[in-house]
Amino acid sequence: MAAPGGVGAGLAGDADSGGLVRKVIAAVVRSGTTVVGSVRAVRTEQPHAVLTFDDGPDPVGTERVLSALAAGGASATFFVLTERVARFGTLLRETAAEGHEIALHGPDHRRLTRFGPHEVAARVTASRRRLEDALGTPVRWFRPPFGAQTPSTWRAIRSTGLEPVLWGPTAWDWLDEPVPALAARAMEGLTRGAILLCHDSYADDPDHPSGAAPTFDRGALTSAVVDGLADRGLRGVSLADALDAGGTAERWAWFRR
Which stretches make up the NodB homology domain (predicted)? Predict the structure, then answer.
C-alpha cells in the first residue's frame, strides 16, 4: 500500500486558477533537485506509459494481474516484498519468465523513515540479497513502502547500489472502491512517460494496521487501465522496457514521512 505525495508531487497537472504558478514551481523543483532525485517519470518518444505494481507476489492478485497484462500485450515492473517472495517464489519466477521486471519493495511494509540510515542500508541490502538469490538475476530499483523517504534514507538506499523509484499518477487501489472509479483515477495524468502506481496485492503497515484488504478484482482493474491506455494510443510497459526503447529516466526530489 502507498499514498501519493512528496516534494513537487501532483503539481504539474493542476488546472485551477493557480495552475500556472504550480507548473512554474514544479519546473523549479524538478530542475533544482535532480542531484537528490528519485526516478518519477520517463522522457520518451515512444507511446509508452510505465506500469508498476507493489506488494506482491500474491497468489490471487498477481495471477490476475499477469493474465490481464498478457491479454493486453503489456509489461510491468513488480516491486516485491521479500517476506512474500519466501512464500511464493515460484510465482515470482513465473512473473519474471513472462517478461516482467522485478524490483525490490523491501523485506516488509514498514516505513523506512522509522529507522536510522545504517539500519535502512542493512535492511535493504539483506532483502536485495534474498530477492536476487530467489530470482537468479540482479535487481536495479527500489520503492520505499508508502513512498516514505527522507534525504538520509535516500542516501542509505543509494549506498546499497539501488535507485529509488516513485510515481506520478496512481489508481488509489489500496481503497476498496468499484473498478471503474479506480480506473478513472488511474487514468488521471496517465500520459506518455508517466509512471503509474498500482498494486497486485495489499500490504498494511505491520506496526500500525489500518484495515481489511480491498476485495475488488485487481485483474479487472489492470485490464481497464491497459484498455484506457490503448484508447489514448499508448502501451503499458515496464520501466526497463521504457528505458531500453530509448527512454531517459527523469529524477527529482521526493521526500515524505
Answer: 47-237
DSSP H/E element including 79 = strand 77-81
Instruction: Tell whether the model's pLDDT for residue 14 goes beyond 80.
Output: no
CATH class of the domain comprising 37-252: alpha beta
Q: How far apart are CA 186 and CA 197, in angstroms?
A: 8
Q: Which three cell numbers stand for residue 84?
A: 512474500
Which tens digits make up the pLDDT trace of 167-213?
999 999 999 999 999 999 999 999 999 999 999 999 988 888 887 89
Q: How far apart are CA 142 and CA 164, in angstroms?
A: 5
**137, three cell numbers:** 538475476
Q: Which of 250, 46, 58, 44 is nearest to 163 (CA)?
A: 250
Cβ-contact 32, 237 below 8 angstroms: no
Q: Which residues contact residue 17 at a Cβ distance below 8 angstroms, ignoring those fewer than 6 apart?
A: none
User: For cell 495471477, what's the residue?
Assistant: 63
Q: Note whether 7 and 147 are within 8 A (CB).
A: no
Domain definitions of the chain by residue range: 37-252
